[in-house]
């Protein structure tokens, strides 16, 4: 069934002649956020194949370790908001009523079915107009499996679409005796992702851990410091000492709207002065908030605020916008 999905989406989108022109670091880059997650359940191989066919510059992989140290492509350290783990392994929940990736071997994780994201307490789908919850036959997969898919497609299509891995909650992993950064870097190296010249950007919210990746683990990859909280915007000089890019929440860039014009914080300007690329998150056409349309959102952030690229659940729409 999985192969049928992949072949269907590849045949569907390779028929499109549109190619993104944002292929180098001086242009606006498109990062497929959790794959084509606006159309298929996030971080499934089907969502990654569909994203690839939409011609982004990079495809994102969030990573959490299994019990047997396999980097699993999943957004959170928990399983119960994107899988049927509560039905298949009800006895494996912890005292906090959550099910953790780290408590399962990779073989056990393969037994789970993946679905569109939902609230584990209510069962309600987070994005109601996306792929229907509980439908399809989607599975979890490893970082290695996804890299082989993307590199294989690069070989067969002649493209050079990159990867954009993020290690999730490294401190949690350390507390459980696991070094997710070291394990991930070793795998990336095995597949040829070693320096900034390679089509790989490595990201993390944990500043202490990302600095360790550069200094102690001596990675030469393009490193991106993700930020979420206001106080972190005051640490740009420190981030620039070890990172190459900054990944802010888009609301950290917006200040206020005066009439029809947006005013911005100094975040992007200050980051650029320090030599940091800015890749903001997340462009969603079904979650516009302050904006009247997806086109306005992209125009304001990509060109008026002058970010260098961004994560999007709808890579085809962002590619088309930038091509125009």
From TrEMBL:
Catalysis: reaction(s): a sn-glycero-3-phosphodiester + H2O = an alcohol + sn-glycerol 3-phosphate + H(+)
GO CC annotations, alphabetized: periplasmic space
Pfam hit, one: GDPD
Identification of the protein by name: glycerophosphodiester phosphodiesterase
UniProt-listed GO biological process terms: glycerol metabolic process; lipid metabolic process
Gene3D superfamilies from the UniProt entry: Phosphatidylinositol (PI) phosphodiesterase (3.20.20.190)
Family: Belongs to the glycerophosphoryl diester phosphodiesterase family.
Classification via CDD domains: GDPD_EcGlpQ_like
Species, as recorded: Tenacibaculum larymnensis
Enzyme class: hydrolase
The EC number(s) this enzyme carries: 3.1.4.46
Keyword terms, alphabetized: Glycerol metabolism, Hydrolase, Signal
Domain GP-PDE as annotated: residue spans: 28-322
NCBIfam families recorded: PRK11143.1
Gene Ontology molecular function: glycerophosphodiester phosphodiesterase activity
SUPFAM superfamilies: PLC-like phosphodiesterases
Listed InterPro entries: GP_PDE_dom (IPR030395), PLC-like_Pdiesterase_TIM-brl (IPR017946)
């Amino acid at each position: 069934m999985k192969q049928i999905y992949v072949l269907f989406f590849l045949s569907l989108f390779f028929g499109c002649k549109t190619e993104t022109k944002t292929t180098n670091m001086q242009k606006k880059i498109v990062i497929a956020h959790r794959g084509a997650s606006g159309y298929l359940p996030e971080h499934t191989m089907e969502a990654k194949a569909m994203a690839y066919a939409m011609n982004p510059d990079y495809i994102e992989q969030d990573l959490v370790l299994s019990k047997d140290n396999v980097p699993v492509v999943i957004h959170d350290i928990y399983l119960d908001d994107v899988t049927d783990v509560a039905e298949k392994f009800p006895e494996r929940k912890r005292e906090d009523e959550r099910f953790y990736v780290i408590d399962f071997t990779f073989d056990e994780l393969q037994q789970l079915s993946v679905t569109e994201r939902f609230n584990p307490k209510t069962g309600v789908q987070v994005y109601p107009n996306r792929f229907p919850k509980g439908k399809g036959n989607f599975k979890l997969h490893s970082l290695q499996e996804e890299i082989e898919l993307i590199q294989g497609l690069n070989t067969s299509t002649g493209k050079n679409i990159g990867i954009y891995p993020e290690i999730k909650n490294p401190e949690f992993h350390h507390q459980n005796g696991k070094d997710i950064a070291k394990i991930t870097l070793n795998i990336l190296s095995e597949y040829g992702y070693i320096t900034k010249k390679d089509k790989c950007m490595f990201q993390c919210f944990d500043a202490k851990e990302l600095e360790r990746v550069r200094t102690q683990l001596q990675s030469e990859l393009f490193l991106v410091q993700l930020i979420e909280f206001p106080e972190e915007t005051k640490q740009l000089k420190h981030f620039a000492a070890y990172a190459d890019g900054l990944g802010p929440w888009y609301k950290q860039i917006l200040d206020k709207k005066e009439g029809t014009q947006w005013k911005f914080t100094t975040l992007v300007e200050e980051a650029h002065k320090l030599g940091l690329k800015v890749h903001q998150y997340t462009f969603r056409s079904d979650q516009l908030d302050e904006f009247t349309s997806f086109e306005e959102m992209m125009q304001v952030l990509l060109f008026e605020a002058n970010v260098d690229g961004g994560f999007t659940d709808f890579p085809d729409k962002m590619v088309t916008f930038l091509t125009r």
